[in-house]
Write a structure and sequence with these properties.
Number of domains: 3
Strand order of the largest sheet: 3-2-1-4-7-6-8-5
Radius of gyration: 32 Å
Strand content: 15-25%
CATH topology of the largest domain: Spore Coat Polysaccharide Biosynthesis Protein SpsA, Chain A
Oligomer: single chain
Number of helices: 24
CATH class of the largest domain: Alpha Beta
Shape: elongated
């Protein structure tokens, strides 16, 4: 055996009889052969020791050590590192596979780049479970930034410069279990070392239910260790209070699922407080890749007065969650929006400056477009999108959004989707009844929900899609086959020219019911629910109706409160409070000319107003009288009524301030 090998390979084993042969052979079959292979068996109880011994008897590069008792993975790695004689230490796990040229390529890179301390590679994930690789970046400066949020390296893929560890007295900490490598990378960075990944897959990383991450007990410890590492790195830029806020808002895995605005603000703060710790160019790279790039976004809505408020709430959510590098042009296909509502909608410019254009639509275009009376939430305005390419031929692309949605994150990534030669990008409709209908009636194997569309306006123009939509509507209307209105026709005309996107961009109500999708895995659906970009209140019953089944219906009221229609939010809250009062304490009876309010047995008769004053102030006057009576009657008896009045007074003050404004 070579007493001064170039590489020392360190591998800990425990009860891996099903996988360890593949792991050992993948090392012994490396094209680069100058290595020692230190294998430490942690007192396995299966056939793992016999398998290791079998290979050790055949190849003298194997240094086989068997613990007399189980000492744990962390201990074995520290022991292996102490025994290592090589210039470089290569890590290997007993259930993974190294590709034949791994060592050759890593040694060549480290020899040519003496400033790099730890070199990993991209990985190919396989096994029982399907997960996304977290190893995506290769540049040392970028990895230095990502280290603040997650471990951007795959442990069994790395090769480490041993001299750096010895000079800085570094090894795995026995206190930081199950994420000991993340802690070691942190210490290496703090000592001035650098991390890098080769931009090719050199390790096949096996995922199964017995890994540390997927066991409840070890997985929890792993998360706690990783949290300590992140805190030590991030508190270089943030105080403890700021760190706690960042920790609660950011997602460490999958990192690309982070709220783009929150991540952007965090990176901007790190840049402002950098003091040379990080590369500003690398920060800008991370911002552009994981948050977004400068984008001028065109969005179409269709509405009348009935949906003006809800459309405005959707627009509010878009602006609130947008990035500083995004600008917005709202094109409203106007089916009859009053000047009063237009004046309200214009106030969203106070949130973020944007353009708002009202395009008056001639309904005669849609005389032959049928409406399904069962879908009482859908009007002919839904067909207005047919005209977009004719109304705005200068646009290359645009969004079309229904008014019954909220945008919870930046639209940047969705907007910059490569549409290729597709007419639209959209998410699958998550109601299987739709799929069955489209298969039986139109012979479509898959269908998209038309409430959220990224439209390839260039292709719509060149392929005359607008005319095709009208022609197809007329054809199927004559056969009485249109059920889901314009969505039916869009699916027929755009079939096989659809780019299906993640359900994060159209989280419909039916996403929460069983077996409601076909294109997406369960993991993708869970990701969509956890990291939603667009909430779509599909279905007849909306959040502003009683009995809405969408689990995120309350989000509507959060954004209503932030919108120009916030007075409606306070009316909603007041009514909710009043409705919670038992009927024997409070009731209202009305006739054509009189109104009688009964509060705790006290009857109040008032004349019913014949003139139509503003809804908000009319109701406030009614409720003010009621609450004052309640307060006087129960002042000494009921603290809850006092709290009720205080809540009311606060809301009344805000609404009156709005009136003055």
């Amino acid at each position: 055996m070579n007493n001064s090998p170039k590489i020392s390979v360190v591998m800990s084993c425990y009860n891996r009889e099903n996988f360890v042969r593949d792991a050992i052979e993948s090392i012994l079959n490396q094209t680069y052969t100058d290595f020692e292979f230190i294998i430490i068996d942690d007192c396995s109880t299966d056939k793992t020791p016999e398998i290791i011994q079998e290979y050790a008897d055949k190849d003298n590069r194997i240094v086989y050590i068997r613990n007399e008792e189980n000492m744990d993975y962390n201990y074995n790695l520290r022991k292996g590192f102490k025994l290592a004689k090589g210039e470089y230490i290569a890590r290997m796990d007993d259930d993974d596979i190294s590709l034949p040229e791994r060592f050759e390529k890593q040694v060549s890179y480290l020899d040519e780049h003496p400033d790099i301390t730890v070199l990993g590679s991209l990985i190919d994930i396989f096994g029982e479970l399907k997960i996304e690789s977290w190893v995506k970046e290769t540049d040392p400066d970028v990895l230095n930034i990502l280290m603040n949020f997650q471990n951007p390296m795959c442990h069994p893929s790395v090769m480490i410069r041993k001299s750096f560890l010895e000079e800085n007295d570094l090894t795995y900490s026995p206190k930081e279990l199950y994420a000991e490598e993340y802690d070691l990378w942190k210490n290496i960075i703090l000592k001035g070392g650098k991390l890098a990944n080769l931009p090719e897959k050199l390790v096949r990383y096996r995922v199964h239910k017995k890994t540390v991450t997927h066991k409840d007990n070890t997985g929890k410890i792993q998360q706690e260790t990783a949290e300590r590492v992140r805190k030590q790195l991030l508190t270089r830029f943030f105080n403890d209070k700021e760190y706690e806020s960042i920790k609660d808002k950011l997602v460490m895995y999958p990192f690309e699922c982070n709220n783009k605005k929150v991540l952007w603000q965090t990176l901007e703060s790190m840049k402002a407080r950098n003091n040379g710790v990080l590369s500003n160019d690398a920060i800008e790279y991370v911002k552009s890749k994981y948050c977004g790039i400068p984008s001028d976004i065109d969005i179409f809505f269709a509405s009348d007065d009935n949906y003006a408020q809800h459309m405005c709430v959707a627009m509010t959510s878009i602006l609130i969650n947008s990035l500083p590098v995004e600008t917005f042009n709202f094109h409203i296909l106007d089916g009859g929006i009053s000047d009063k509502n237009k004046k309200q909608i214009e106030k969203i410019k106070k949130i973020k400056n944007s353009t708002i254009e009202y395009i008056k639509i001639d309904n005669s275009f849609f005389a032959n477009c049928p409406i399904n009376p069962e879908l009482h939430n859908i009007t002919k305005h839904s067909y207005y999108r047919y005209l977009i390419s004719k109304l705005k031929p200068d646009l290359d692309k645009c969004f079309y959004f229904d008014s019954d949605l909220l945008v919870m994150d930046s639209l940047n990534e969705f907007w910059n989707t490569d549409l290729e030669d597709n007419f639209v990008a959209a998410a699958e409709d998550l109601w299987m009844e739709v799929h069955r209908y489209y298969k039986n009636v139109y012979d479509l194997n898959c269908s998209f929900n038309a409430g959220v569309l990224l439209i390839n306006n260039n292709l719509w123009k060149t392929n005359n899609i607008s005319n095709k939509l009208f022609e197809t509507t007329s054809y199927f209307a004559n056969k009485n086959l249109i059920r889901f209105v314009d969505q039916d026709i869009l699916n027929v005309v755009c079939y096989n020219k659809v780019k299906y996107v993640s359900p994060i961009y159209n989280l419909q109500q039916t996403a929460y019911f069983a077996t409601q999708h076909s294109l997406y895995t369960e993991a993708e659906m869970e990701t969509a629910k956890a990291h939603t970009v667009i909430i779509h209140y599909s279905g007849n019953i909306k959040p502003w109706h009683k009995g809405c089944l969408h689990p995120l219906w309350k989000k509507y009221y959060e954004y209503l409160k932030l919108s120009p229609y916030k007075a409606q939010y306070y009316l909603y809250k007041i009514n909710k409070i009043l409705l919670s009062i038992p009927k024997f304490l409070f009731s209202i009876k009305k006739s054509e000319t009189r109104k009688r309010i009964k509060v705790l047995g006290v009857k109040i008769n008032t004349k019913r107003k014949k003139t139509k004053l503003g809804l908000i102030y009319d109701k406030l006057e009614e409720q003010s009288d009621i609450l004052n009576k309640l307060h006087k009657t129960l002042e000494k008896q009921n603290k809850q009524i006092i709290e009720l009045k205080n809540k009311f007074l606060e809301s009344e003050k805000e609404i009156l301030n709005q009136k003055k404004g």
